[in-house]
Amino acid sequence: MNPSLDRLTKVLRLEAQQGHKNNAIIGGLEKMLPFWEPEARRNLDAELVEKVAAFVRGYASLPPEARPSAIDEMLAALPAKPAAEAPRRPSPPRPAPQPVARPQPPAPAPTAPPPPENFSPSTQPEVAQPAHAAPAPAATAESPVTNYQPRGGAMHSPVTPLRHREPAPLPSAAPAALDASLTVLPGIGPKIAKTLERLGLNSLGDMLTYYPRRHDDYSQLKPINRLVYGEDVTVVGTVWEARVQKIKGGLASVLKVIVSDSTGTIECSWFNQPWLAENFKTGEQIVISGRVNQYLGRLVMQTPSWEPLDRQQLHTGRIVPVYSLTQGIRAKWLRERMDMVVRQWAPRVPDPLPALVRERAGLMDYPTALKQIHFPDDQKSLAAARLRLAFDEILRLQLSALRQRADWQSAPGRPLAADDEWIAARVASLPFPLTGAQQRVLADLRADLARPVPMTRLLQGDVGSGKTVLAALAAAIAHRNHAQSAIMAPTSILAEQHYRNISRLLNAGDVWRVTGDATPATRHSSPTVRLLQGSTPDSEKAEIYEGLRAGQIDIVIGTHALIEGPVEFANLGLVVVDEQHRFGVSQRSALRAKGRDYSPHLLVMTATPIPRTLALTLYGDLDLSVLDEMPPGRQPIETRIVYQNERERGYAFVRSQIAIGRQAYLICPLVEESDKIEAKAAVDEHARLQKHVFPDLRLGLLHGRMKPDEKEEAMGKFYRGELDILVSTSVVEVGVDVPNATVMLIEGANRFGLAQLHQFRGRVGRGEHASYCLLVSDQTGAGLAEGDERLKAVEASLDGFALAEKDLELRGPGEFLGTRQAGYGDLRLAKLSDLRLIELARREAQTLFAEDPNLEKPEHRLLAESVAGVGATGSGDVS
Fold first, then answer.
1. pLDDT grade for 620, boundaries at 50, 70 and 90
2. How many Cα neighbours within 13 Å face the side chain of 706?
């Protein structure tokens, strides 16, 4: 049969089956004309098309008793089936055809060419299915799916599914159609597709992984007389009355709908949406879901979601997904399109996890997880879907980290050994004894350096725990083995501090005498240490470049200038990266790549205490050493919260410390919009303090928008005692040691993370004087209690690791991540505070990696493809 006639016949027969209620097409039969008529005019007689169009337009106005005969007459007026499809009479040469158990979808007429690949099914209406209708035959590779019924069926515009080809029974890759543009979906043209790009939605595959930001649970069904204020519920009732009321002198309106059930009534209201009134017919049964509010002592529901009862619910009566939106995209509209894509395509997406891994970890399969994360059947299914998808995210990161570690260690490394006697002499020459924690870490470093495999170790320790001396000893071991070392710091201030300290520690004279079983490669003199920064004069840079190439410089300390093209090493054996989270992965990789014949050993250090759960995930490619013990003699820092009405007392305390010859830091509130705005805030705060609070004192200013030489000048003046107070933004978090600074006053302390507050506090207490940290809170209103809890945690503890755990619990992992940390910005469902999830994924990653390091087995191919995309925008490794 002609496809236009076939479609029309099906609609008319369905209308008859449903009792001639004008609901075979949602919105009435007339809704089919904009989609059916243009197609019909291409392959049917024009007179017939006009006759059908006139009938359909007038059908809604017919009295109910006249509709059955009108439908019968219209069906009779349609052309008979072509002879090829008519019942055949028996004939001697040809046996009678066998009866067909169930009709198959007709082949397209020759006059109607097949639709192009990007055909939009919005050219067809949505056909309502009767409750008793048999399920439609499954689509085949030759027959397009034409009977898609969205979950809930409550679409506000006619929709039909995508035309596609059924994937193979056991797909080995995601269907190619997932790369299709969103314009293949009904109701999405180029303009709306452009709007959806703002949400990161460019293809059907993007929609599958565009997870809801939350779910509203409307699955609780209650009678009206049992509703309780503040709860989210679903009510099934009958529309009693619907009216639009003008308010604010006619400038606004409110639609009020009274819904009743056998137990009572409730008023539902929608503001400034008068057009909704025509959807509520008196006596119609509907489902409403939302939060129960109160108005003038009566329970009401304001702007609830609603749907007719005779349709399967998508927006009400269930756990409803809530997606992030952008201007021009409505929540219901996006949810309907999501439902269409999820129902159609989630079952066709292959599972990248082998069945054995799923069973071992007790995980849901991937297609089911996709369906349940978008439209969960219940809370248990939602939790299982979240666990599965979050597991995938962490597993990919872990496998990527293990792959990076294996790649790095697959290159030959140069053993850098040192005997016990020589190490003992070096340690004895230090101006202070090593703590037990430092001795343990030194043993880790010696063991790693002595192996022919490149070291990859993370050293984390609190401010002042003694990381620098361990880096110096590692560089000394490299020097003893005729190898060069490069130490990179994030700021010129910190690089200069390292240069001073390491030069002092490594130039102790006779300790460099040959002892024990020294080899010919052993150095006999103290190492040559140089400082290389962007501000280094060109003539001095050229001298340093030549010294590094010739092997005459043993240790170079600097900033990002170390990774510039002209820097070449004769024999780079050790790379140390300090405050590693402040460098992009590409910068760290560039420095490591400076090695020639051998891959250099790598030591990365951070003063930010990182919770173990997070360290296992962020640095899965690194071995971990922790300095959890402070050197003796460090002054404890007394910490106090200062509320807004006590600020003047805080200023008075600062003045009292300066009066006895001390210095103070004053940190400006965090402004998150941009460095530029934050810098302006610091300039304004400096001017206010200098003019109104400390007019008789010497104040300096430090912020991130200053030029490097301006920062150096400000910090240098403070170090030399030429300034009493340094007003700074968070850039001072990593800075030089100023032993005379005893007060850290932090304005807007509630805006910073606990780990960052602890870092600020570590800037004082570096000398022999008692030191103090004042946390000035500007929190007001509803957030006061939470802000107090966080600041009280800092006030009560000097343990950076305990505070880091608390910070992870309260604020998530953002405080510990560099802005360019590869892969971790892509986490959508995984919480890095979930110890069980991290350990589960880590264990499975190690098992998989031990079994198949390159993921080359057939059952691991899809997993390998997903791991290959980790950190694609991060330009390098995790370390």
1. confident
2. 20
**Radius of gyration over every alpha carbon of the chain, rounded to an integer in angstroms:** 36
Instruction: Give the relative orientation of helices 331-345 and 366-374 as an angle to the nearest 10 degrees.
Output: 160
How does residue 725 score in pLDDT terms, banded at 50, 70 and 90? very high
Phi and psi dihedrals of 713, rounded to 5?
-65, -45
DSSP helix/strand/coil, 810: helix
Q: Which pLDDT tens digit goes with each residue over 754-801?
A: 888 888 898 898 888 899 999 998 876 544 555 677 898 899 888 887
**Which contacts (CB < 8 Å, 24+ apart) does range 496-504 have?**
496/531, 496/533, 496/712, 496/736, 497/736, 497/737, 498/468, 498/471, 498/557, 498/578, 499/529, 499/531, 499/557, 501/468, 501/472, 502/468, 502/471, 502/472, 502/475, 502/529, 502/555, 502/557, 503/529
What is the pLDDT, as a whole number, of residue 668?
87
Q: What separation in angstroms does the CA of 758 have from each of 751, 763, 770, 804?
A: 13, 9, 17, 9
Cα separation of the two ends of the chain = 65
Contact 243, 296 (CB under 8 A): no
Q: Would you state the structure tokens that stand for residue 503, as one six-digit string?
A: 């030069």
Find the angle CA(188)-CA(114)-CA(135) to the nearest 5 degrees: 75
- Distance (Å, whole) CA 866 – CA 716: 50
E strand spans, 663-781: 663-667, 699-702, 725-728, 741-746, 771-776
- Label residue 18 exposed, middle or buried (CB < 10 Å: 0-12, 13-18, 19+): middle
Using CA atoms, how far apart are residues 795 and 761, in angstroms rounded to an integer?
A: 11
pLDDT value at residue 301: 94
The beta strands (E) that lie in 468-578 are given as 484-488, 529-532, 555-558, 572-578
- Encoded tokens for 811: 């604020």
Which helix (H) or strand (E) covers residue 459, if one does?
A: strand 456-461
- Are 531 and 496 in contact, with CB atoms under 8 Å apart? yes
Residue 413 has pLDDT above 90, yes or no: no
pLDDT band at 210 (very low <50, low <70, confident <90, very high): very high
Beta partners for residue 663, in sequence order: 741
Mean pLDDT across 551-558: 94
Helices 33-43, 3-17: axis angle to 10 degrees equals 140
Average pLDDT of the segment spanning 231-238: 90
Neighbours of 272 (CB within 10 A): 11
Q: Provide the H-helix boundaries in 720-824.
A: 754-761, 784-796, 800-811
Q: Which two tokens stand for residue 220?
A: 């609780």
The pLDDT of 591-598, averaged and rounded, is: 74
In SS3 terms, 547-578 reads as HHHHCCCCEEEECHHHHCCCCCCCCEEEEEEE
On the 0-12 / 13-18 / 19+ scale of CB atoms within 10 A, 573 is buried
Q: Cα dist. 691→27, 694, 719, 748 in Å? A: 71, 7, 23, 20
Q: DSSP character for 22?
A: S
Q: Where are the alpha helices (DSSP H) in 769-877?
A: 784-796, 800-811, 835-851, 861-868
Q: Which of these, 280, 329, 273, lies nearest to 302 by C-alpha position?
A: 273
Check: CB of residue 467 under 8 Å from CB of residue 605: yes
Token digits of residue 252: 């606004």
| E-state strands within 680-781 | 699-702, 725-728, 741-746, 771-776
Task: Report which of 698, 753, 707, 710 is spatially closest to residue 730, judged by C-alpha positions.
Answer: 753
Backbone angles phi, psi at 689, to 5 degrees: -65, -40
Q: Provide the whole-model pTM.
A: 0.62
Nearest CA-CA partner of 351 in 868, 860, 875:
860
The DSSP annotation for 368-434 comes to HHHHHHHS-SSHHHHHHHHHHHHHHHHHHHHHHHHHHHHHHHHS-B------HHHHHHHHHTSSSPP
